[in-house]
Design a protein that fits this description.
Layout: H1 5-18, H2 25-29, E1 37-39, E2 42-46, E3 48-53, H3 74-78, H4 84-95, H5 100-117, E4 119-126, H6 142-154, E5 157-164, H7 186-197, E6 204-206, E7 208-210, H8 218-227, E8 234-238, H9 242-252, H10 256-263, E9 270-274, H11 280-289, E10 292-295, H12 297-302, H13 310-315, E11 319-322, H14 332-347, H15 361-377, E12 385-389, H16 403-409, E13 416-421, E14 424-428, E15 431-432, H17 435-451
Parallel strand pairs: 3-4, 4-5, 5-6, 5-7, 7-8, 8-9, 9-10, 10-11
Antiparallel strand pairs: 1-2, 2-12, 12-13, 13-14, 14-15
Helix pairs in contact: 5-6, 5-17, 15-16
The structure holds zinc ion (ZN).
């Protein structure tokens, strides 16, 4: 599934060495078969996991596509002075306006769109914890609860990842005024994790996230890891930006992934988000550890992050899944299509993401995203089902051998017809059953956010 049999054995060996299961074999077997199968009237596939989401950013999707300072010298701006870091300014302005009510309304709209696109679970990388001035809400988990309510009312499975965010840079500088609502000390953070963990249920898993190496000091990371139950998913943003790699080198004398693996026992519980800028040695270390990489191709393109070394990672047997991150696009088709297209544009070759046992790019991508997703969400394989419209012209004459390629690489019309999560239908004829009510609430919320 992840490449060579030797690589798979290496995963299994790593899991035994670290005392945890890397694969949950019975769950993985469910996605080892053909990922898309014919059913009456459609093509059925398992639900896809969205491994990386900041729900509130759905409210600003499309609102950061303007030059940050139009009065600036035109030639300099055209030469690319806008970047991740200027986008972050827009994001901070939006983050400052969110309340539990607006978060719930925005997240519900987002989750409806995810379900209609074929995602049936989402990892919410949640750092908007407190009031804008940094004081905790009462109760302290009010923002987390808003996300849980949005997931519950729309029916998507939620892996809630409360984020530890403590410092404003690798040098340990304090959080800026606009980052204050993200911040925790370790004890308060662990209390929040406990509070949320106690609420786990059928559609809810709770893990933890470290925002990034620049936002979490080493001692705090070790304190949290030592206090966690052994099987919690752990996610972290890492090596997304060249500037982040340079800062890490300057302060810690190591690249981010290199530093993480040198200082922490990274195993199959971990999901590394982006991991864009890697050396060959770092790529091999991630693959050998059994960790999952959460790739977010549309956001990484939108932010100008760079390209993940996909072919080398596949050759090393690495595990990965997809996420929609900033929600500039909410479509597994677009994430997988652009994951492959980025590699083609960079190398001048076609059909990059093929693995042993299949010569189909679509099937390889889908199989890996399903397996990595099932693992990194903590849900494992489920009976969630997505049914594509067999009457769509792009699927005319499709076979089990080409249905995945057709779905991922041809056309732009959404083909998801029905979605069932945990045995309950949430999408029928391409529409979430509560689409209109959720969209009406969202429209009112956005009007209020934009005029705030
Ligand atoms: Zn992110």
């Amino acid at each position: 599934m992840y490449g060579s049999a030797r690589a798979r054995r290496r995963h299994a060996a790593a899991g035994v060495r670290q005392g945890i299961a890397t694969g949950r074999p019975s769950r993985h077997n469910a996605v080892m078969n053909d990922p898309i199968t014919r059913v009456p009237g459609g093509w059925r596939l398992p639900g896809i996991s969205n491994l990386h989401s900041h729900a509130f950013q759905r409210a600003m999707a499309g609102l950061a596509e303007r030059r940050a300072d139009p009065s600036r010298d035109g030639s300099a701006a055209r030469n690319g002075h806008d970047s991740f870091w200027t986008w972050r300014e827009t994001m901070y302005r939006f983050a400052a306006r969110m309340t539990p009510d607006t978060t719930r309304a925005v997240a519900a709209q987002l989750y409806v769109e995810m379900l209609e696109a074929g995602y049936t679970s989402v990892c919410e990388f949640h750092y908007l914890h407190h009031q804008p001035d940094g004081r905790p809400y009462a109760p302290a988990d009010a923002m987390s609860a808003a996300l849980m309510e949005a997931a519950h009312e729309t029916g998507i499975r939620l892996t809630l990842l409360p984020v530890l965010y403590m410092t404003g840079g690798f040098d340990g500088r304090p959080l800026s005024e606009r980052q204050r609502r993200f911040g925790h000390e370790v004890d308060a953070f662990l209390r929040l994790v406990d509070m949320l963990h106690a609420r786990e249920g059928d559609g809810l898993r709770v893990g933890v996230a470290f925002h990034s190496l620049r936002a979490v000091p080493e001692a705090a990371m070790h304190a949290v890891l030592a206090a966690l139950p052994a099987d919690l998913p752990i996610h972290i943003h890492i090596a997304e930006q060249v500037g982040e790699v340079q800062d890490c080198l300057a302060v810690r004398d190591a690249r981010p992934v290199e530093w993480l693996y040198d200082h922490v026992d990274v195993d199959a519980r971990w999901t590394l988000v982006h991991a864009t800028h890697l050396t060959p040695a770092e790529t091999a270390r991630i693959a050998a550890s059994g960790a999952t990489v959460a790739l977010c191709p549309t956001t990484e393109a939108n932010l100008g992050d760079g390209l993940f070394p996909l072919r080398a990672y596949l050759d090393a047997g690495g595990r990965w899944g997809i996420g929609s991150d900033s929600h500039i696009s909410i479509s597994p088709v677009e994430e997988l299509r652009w994951l492959e297209y980025g590699q083609r544009l960079a190398t001048g070759h076609r059909n990059i993401a093929v693995a042993e046992g299949s010569d189909s790019v679509g099937e390889t991508l889908l199989r890996a995203a399903l397996a990595g997703g099932a693992h990194a969400t903590g849900f494992g394989a489920t009976d969630d089902a997505v049914v594509l419209d067999a009457d769509a012209p792009v699927l005319a004459g499709a076979t089990a051998g080409d249905a995945a390629d057709r779905w991922i690489f041809s056309g732009n019309r959404p083909l998801v017809r029905d979605v069932h999560v945990g045995g309950r239908q949430r999408v029928a004829d391409g529409r979430h059953l509560d689409r209109d009510a959720v969209a009406a609430r969202y429209a009112g919320t956005i009007q209020a956010l934009l005029s705030a």
